[in-house]
């Protein structure tokens, strides 16, 4: 069957349902149902047999549910209705709860019932229950529903509150006031309040005077204090006394001020120095401890087997956590055991590097680097262990580097029903490390490794076993899985083949090392990661920011609004659209799974390859390759310049204050400049620098014979005017074309420096030999950094130019006439195939962050590539050329200042 999912997020339940149905041969299209239009459009396109809503907060339009069977998965018992089902069940301490699959109807959650299942409630947070009991019941219920649907004879049972088995009722949405904490209450009651809001939205409280949402609550049996008092800290968590004991809280999210969003971090990180007087309560990894408490890493030993547990919140592993786990592993390795079992945690095995901690760092690029190195150091210890056999025992889901971490062991076992995401690329094109280029092909072969890393889709533990990614999947629930693992580990330790297996392992490692040293894999991966973290392409940083802030990026400060967008840099763009409500709902994310292969596969629609859909026609214009080509040319040009002038071209980057993101951007330019041989230096000024001081620095750079190009990072702090900057920078050094003189020269058709993004578009058109003379070019943008300058440049190339903007009527009628279409509106996927003339060249300047962390352009790549003649992708199109154009103009400026005006011009002026 073809099944469309309407879901608010492709969360753990949605992913699990996806893999289960794909494993059973169904075609599943996951639609992030952000609006009615998205749902209507998906149905019109896909004509599904069945629609399933695994986790939908929106109402399905009547025109859909009247014509298609739409099944809603509701996390409540029969008759329960309302948005806070599970929250109430936990808060009220119910002993039994359930999941009901019902048909969408005019009234929310009141449709006829297909299946309802119940389960016994355990302790644990809402997300813990959701990942285990709710998901299991929902999946079983969904499979039963599909069987009933296929039978074509089943009639769902109308909701009837007079029936005895209908015990649920309509419940109001839960409010913060319903869960407000009084710390003199007993621990059990406080735990229920925190847990019924964990992981979302979190319960609001005040900790040491700071308003914070609380997460990750654990019982504590020994420590005691005055109710409300913070009495201890351990591994990032704080212990707070209650009316009858104490509880641990691992994570806090500070309530944002001025409506600014924030994100979860370890409690001690948020409270920082406020905890100076609070004592540490260390608990050694191998210290036996009977009572209930909180510990992240602990070790237990039974006979010849050592079990190392690491239960990191959400499976994220920071630099510090990786280092502590590595130290624990080294300790465990010294024990006279035979087998080490890496147990992970019950909810997650691992999800790789800790994006929240990275985002919170002063220098996220640097912290990303430290974190991946720490992960690699840990993985290396696992791979090179020759004293023990090592088992990875996955009780919970794993993603990205977390999956690879598991593969570093000799045996990998997983609980049935897990979802694994063995890929990195979805996080802004992250290449990934953890020796995956060694470990993944070793397990599944090169071709499958490629498929897994490119498809960016979740797979079930069943599929993982089929393709050899793991050795075996067994047991549905975590407790049975742990028991089973103990048996497997004991058998391995007492196997008569133990010594020969160990010897075989040593030999294989030795052979592998001779073939290609581990360090070589690491170096190659890290080279790519370096580019992700410090290179010109900011996709990873944007995607991480978006992921961490859950799509609600911080607003630009009120003061920033007064500034024109000068540099047209990616980061400025990001800050601009971050505050725009229209970006908050974002676009659609779709995944398509094919039914024509043995195991599931599927791709984002960009490379959709299913169901007899028309094959793609457009040539993909590869911005990265062009950028590499230009850099190579630049190196040669810089060499010639140095030979002739006796010094390298010089670049001055001025940054006043600035956030971490703009720091990353500066570093990226510095690195790229260094790479091509330009002498670049960063002039970092304090945030309170006066206008006179800034002007003085610019004048000094204007007069500095060693500096040929000047860039000032925007936005500036509120007290400094951009106008002063553009008036002060010497037009002969204005390599980002921001000055009125540069703009005027461009307007008059005189030689000038150009805004780098517009110049990048022209460079692509030139390098791809796109004819412009007499052609109709439509540009969607009239901004000062893209649309207006681009219009001028295109006119100079004798194109017939139409500039469109937000007030343009019947945009599609105009864009359909374009031989060349440039989209730079900053509106995710606004240009669809119906707006494009067949065979047109489509240049996508837009960079739009989606709520799920992905980045898309202004063009709906999937549909447009099937009609256009050529198209730039996002990321990997215009973006990579923008910085390189700055450097190109810097070299051009150097030649001009040396009196050699004809040398090395940008495409627009050739
Ligand atoms: P901007 O100043 O907001 O300009 C957007 C332009 O698009 C405006 O002229 C606007 O019209 C027009 N527009 C917006 N919505 C429209 C609609 N629905 N129909 C027609 N026109 C519409 O943005 P920007 O700074 O130029 O950036 C534009 C995009 O390019 C962003 O996604 C940004 O991230 C990206 N960008 C990429 C790079 C790069 O690749 N390196 C560099 C810079 C920017 P009005 O003027 O009438 O409002």
Itemize the secondary structure elements and their pairings.
Layout: E1 2-7, H1 12-23, E2 27-32, H2 36-46, E3 50-53, H3 62-65, E4 70-74, H4 85-91, E5 96-103, E6 113-120, H5 126-151, H6 187-195, E7 203-207, E8 210-220, E9 230-234, E10 237-241, E11 246-254, E12 265-266, H7 267-271, E13 297-302, E14 305-310, H8 319-333, E15 339-344, E16 348-350, H9 355-360, H10 364-383, E17 389-394, E18 397-399, H11 401-407, E19 411-415, E20 419-421, H12 436-444, H13 446-455, E21 459-460, H14 461-466, E22 472-474, H15 478-494, H16 498-515, H17 518-534, H18 539-548, H19 570-578, H20 581-585, E23 590-593, E24 602-603, E25 619-620, H21 623-645, E26 650-656, H22 660-676, E27 679-685, H23 691-703, E28 709-712, H24 722-728, H25 740-748, H26 756-767, E29 776-780, H27 787-796, E30 800-804, H28 811-815, E31 820-823, E32 841-844, E33 848-849, E34 855-856, H29 861-864, E35 870-871, H30 879-897
Parallel strand pairs: 1-2, 1-3, 3-4, 14-15, 15-17, 16-18, 17-19, 18-20, 19-22, 25-35, 26-27, 26-28, 29-30, 29-31, 31-32, 32-35
Antiparallel strand pairs: 2-23, 4-5, 5-6, 7-8, 8-11, 9-10, 10-11, 11-12, 13-14, 20-21, 23-24, 33-34
Helix pairs in contact: 1-5, 8-10, 10-17, 12-13, 21-30, 26-27, 26-30
């Amino acid at each position: 069957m073809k099944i469309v999912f309407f879901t608010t997020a492709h969360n753990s339940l949605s992913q699990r349902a996806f893999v289960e149905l794909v494993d059973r041969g169904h075609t599943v299209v996951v639609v992030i149902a952000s609006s009615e239009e998205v749902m209507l459009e998906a149905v019109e396109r896909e004509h599904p047999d069945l629609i399933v809503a695994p986790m939908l907060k929106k109402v399905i339009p009547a025109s859909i549910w009247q014509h298609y069977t739409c099944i809603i998965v509701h996390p409540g018992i029969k008759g329960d209705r309302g948005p806070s089902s599970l929250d109430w069940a936990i808060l009220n301490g119910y002993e039994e709860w359930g999941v009901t699959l019902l048909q969408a109807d005019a009234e929310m959650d009141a449709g006829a019932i297909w299946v309802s299942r119940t389960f016994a409630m355990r302790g644990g947070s809402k997300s813990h229950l959701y990942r285990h009991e709710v998901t299991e019941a929902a999946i079983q219920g969904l499979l039963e529903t599909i069987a009933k649907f296929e039978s074509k004879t089943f009639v769902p049972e109308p909701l009837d509150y007079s029936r005895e088995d209908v015990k649920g009722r309509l419940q109001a949405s839960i409010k913060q006031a319903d869960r407000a904490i009084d710390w003199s209450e007993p621990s059990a009651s406080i735990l229920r309040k925190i847990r019924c809001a964990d992981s979302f939205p979190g319960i609001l409280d005040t900790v040491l005077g700071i308003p914070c949402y609380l997460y990750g609550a654990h019982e504590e049996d020994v420590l005691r204090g005055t109710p409300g008092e913070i009495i201890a800290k351990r591994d990032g968590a704080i212990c707070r006394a209650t009316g009858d004991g104490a509880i641990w809280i691992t994570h806090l999210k500070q309530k944002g001020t001025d409506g600014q969003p924030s994100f979860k971090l370890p409690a001690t990180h948020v409270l920082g120095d406020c905890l100076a007087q609070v004592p540490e309560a260390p608990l050694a990894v191998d210290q036996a401890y009977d009572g209930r408490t909180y510990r992240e890493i602990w070790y237990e030993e039974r006979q010849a087997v050592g079990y190392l547990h690491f239960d990191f919140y959400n499976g994220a592993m920071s630099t510090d956590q990786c280092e502590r786990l590595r130290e624990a592993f080294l300790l465990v390795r010294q024990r006279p055991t035979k087998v080490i079992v890496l147990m992970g945690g019950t909810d997650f095995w691992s999800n790789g590097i800790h994006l929240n901690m990275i985002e919170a760092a002063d220098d996220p690029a640097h912290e990303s680097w430290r974190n991946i190195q720490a992960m690699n150091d840990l993985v290396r210890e696992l791979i090179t262990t020759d004293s023990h056999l090592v088992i990875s025992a996955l009780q919970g889901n794993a993603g990205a580097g977390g999956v690879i971490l598991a593969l570093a062991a000799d045996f990998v076992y997983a609980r049935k029903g897990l979802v694994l995401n063995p890929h990195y690329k979805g996080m802004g094109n992250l290449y990934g490390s953890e020796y995956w280029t060694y470990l993944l092909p070793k397990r599944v072969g090169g071709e499958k490794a490629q498929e897994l890393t490119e498809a960016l889709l979740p797979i079930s533990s069943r599929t993982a076993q089929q393709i050899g990614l793991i050795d075996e999947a067994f047991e549905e629930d975590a407790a049975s899985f742990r028991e089973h693992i103990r048996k497997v580990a004991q058998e391995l330790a007492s196997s008569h083949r133990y010594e020969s297996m160990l010897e075989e392992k040593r030999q294989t490692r030795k052979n592998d090392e001779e073939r290609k040293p581990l360090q070589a894999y690491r170096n190659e991966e890290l080279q790519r990661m370096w580019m992700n973290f410090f290179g010109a392409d900011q996709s990873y940083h944007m995607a991480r920011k978006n992921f961490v802030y859950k799509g609600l990026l911080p607003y630009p400060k009120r003061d920033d609004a007064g500034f024109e967008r000068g540099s047209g840099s990616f980061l400025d763009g990001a800050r601009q659209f971050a505050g725009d409500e229209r970006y908050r709902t974002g676009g659609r994310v779709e995944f398509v799974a094919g039914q024509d292969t043995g195991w599931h596969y599927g791709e984002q629609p960009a490379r959709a390859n299913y169901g007899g859909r028309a094959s793609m026609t457009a040539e993909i214009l590869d911005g990265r390759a062009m950028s590499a080509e230009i850099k190579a040319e630049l190196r040669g040009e810089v060499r010639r310049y140095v030979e002739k002038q006796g010094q390298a071209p010089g670049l001055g980057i001025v940054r006043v204050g600035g956030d971490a993101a703009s720091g990353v951007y500066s570093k990226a330019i510095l690195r790229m400049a260094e790479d091509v041989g330009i002498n670049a230096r960063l002039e970092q000024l304090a945030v309170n620098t006066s206008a006179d001081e800034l002007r003085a620095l610019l004048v000094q750079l204007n007069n500095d014979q060693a500096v040929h190009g000047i860039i000032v990072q925007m936005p500036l702090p509120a007290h400094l005017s951009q106008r002063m900057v553009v008036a002060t920078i010497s037009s002969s050094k204005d390599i980002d074309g921001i000055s009125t003189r540069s703009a005027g020269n461009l307007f008059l058709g005189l030689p000038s420096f150009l805004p780098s993004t517009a110049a990048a578009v022209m460079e692509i058109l030139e390098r791809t030999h796109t004819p412009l003379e007499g052609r109709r070019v439509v540009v969607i943008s009239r901004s000062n950094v893209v649309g207006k300058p681009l219009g001028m440049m295109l006119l100079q190339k004798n194109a017939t130019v139409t500039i469109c903007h937000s007030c343009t009527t019947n945009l599609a009628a105009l864009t359909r006439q374009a031989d060349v279409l440039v989209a730079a509106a900053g509106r995710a996927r606004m240009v669809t195939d119906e707006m494009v003339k067949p065979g047109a060249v489509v240049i996508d300047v837009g960079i739009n962050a989606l709520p799920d962390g992905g980045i898309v352009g202004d063009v709906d790549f999937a549909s447009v590539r099937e009609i256009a003649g050529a198209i730039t992708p996002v990321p990997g199109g215009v973006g990579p050329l923008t910085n390189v154009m700055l450097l190109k103009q810097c070299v051009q400026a150097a030649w001009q200042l040396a009196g050699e005006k004809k040398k090395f011009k940008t495409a627009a002026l050739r």
